[in-house]
Amino acid sequence: MKVTYYLETISSWCHWAEPAWAELKARYAGRAHFEWKIALMRAEDFPVSRSQAEWFYRRSGGTVMHSPVMLNAGWLNEGSGSNYEAASLVAEAAKDFGFVDDAVRLAITHAAVFEGKSVGDFAVAAAVAAKASGVPAKKLRARAESAALRARVEASTAEFFSHRITQRPAFVIEDRIGDKVVFSGIVRAAPIAAAIDAMLSDTAAYDAHDAHFGTPPPR
Prior knowledge:
CATH architecture: 3-Layer(aba) Sandwich
CATH class: Alpha Beta
Structural class: alpha+beta
CATH superfamily: Glutaredoxin
Number of domains: 1
Radius of gyration: 19 Å
């Protein structure tokens, strides 16, 4: 069983999905492999002003998630077309230094949506990641700006779109009997857990059948 989480590091909806991601990893530890991948948003997908971002934050955090904390839109540069890829590229770069868990990317997210830091700037994002990881900011930035890492993130972004989805967070669940379930835009654990439970049950049924009847006869 494999669960892949596609995310954009600065996305507020991905932030709201983090408790579900943590819950699923704890609940299915040892029974499923969990991995996160970057799915970059286009520049035009971001809010064009802080007031617009704050409107979205009130809707998602206040109305939908009932959060007692208002997110901080200070990370956003006024005007359309701004590029914020540095945050996700630096988060991805940390993997190459052994930080394949969530700690570094969550530090970058927190710096953006709670502290309002301009993590769309490579220097800022690398400094945050360095503090969280202990890896020198210079090394993180160099890796983040490398052609190889850019290609890797572009590949994971293309992989995200290959599932014919557009909303992040997205969760793709696959098992060894060929089943696949795709959730796009879901931020709560319950529906994802229900799908994982159903797929684990089906996989166990296949195992029981094989134990009694063996592999299928050749065609």
